[in-house]
């Protein structure tokens, strides 16, 4: 199925959301469940039971009910127990971590990368930031591999599948882990991760269900055979339009066989259908469990929004401080002009005799200049004082808001 230009993500195509049926919507519920979904580039590949063979196949997707994500999040949050990281953040102790005492050999990482590595392998909560191309994924690969080698458990989450796979791929290639120690939850983006049965959760589940899948295949084969026999019977019935005794005798012999009677075939088909439904239901339950794990990862989205709000508040305060500094500088300059005007007037007033009479107009101009300079300086000082007052109020409000946001963020960036 070509999905170019479609906004449908693989996360939406799990569980019992997909059905293979005919072109009419009324027949969707009577269709067949989809066993596997895999996104390969611009193509969406699905696997259905062998007996699913509608004459004009269409792939239908059932829309999720309104509020399903909110309900899932509410139930997931209700099931949460202790949250040590959140408690540290509420107490203001989240930043009191310690770097690891040593990093990898100096020839492996750059100094800044080594510092990020020591933060990953140290204690406490750390924020490691770097622009594209600075080796963040390289540091993650090394840190994850070394932490696992020391028996540590690591949870790696990201807003995109490709980011998780890029970091995971490097760890998998080093083969420093045993099968089952690395588990990729969610739809992989990279083929080497999606096809690695020792890492991909979907493949792990499929291997552990090998016996159930084998039974499903056997039942599917029986259904295919029963369908072929039913079609053959229909062809024989149509052939009776032009009855022939010899052909009839041969057909009668076949039909008299108890194992080939319509009732026996119908019973076999019904049994096969029941077994197939049991197998499909078992697979569906496992797919639903897998979807629940994917939605748990999505629960980190509110924390991302809180981090964005946190950064915006910091940027707002920084902008206000810049404005205050600018106004204070203007007030300082205006004060300097006022001082210079006062000194100029004082010099003129200190003159005596003929020199004083000769500079009468200069003194009058100096008085006007001093009054103007005082007005400007006082206005600039008032603006600076008002700006400082606004900054103080805003800083207090933002500090309270940041404390509120920090108290509910359960994940680091």
From TrEMBL:
Coiled-coil annotated spans: 363-397
Domain DNA2/NAM7 helicase helicase: from-to ranges: 117-391
InterPro entries, per the entry: DNA2/NAM7-like, DNA2/NAM7_AAA_11, P-loop_NTPase
GO molecular function, one term: helicase activity
Top-level division of the source organism's lineage: Bacteria
Region (Disordered): 1-26
Keywords for this protein: Coiled coil
Pfam families per UniProt: AAA_11 (PF13086)
Protein name: DNA2/NAM7 helicase helicase domain-containing protein
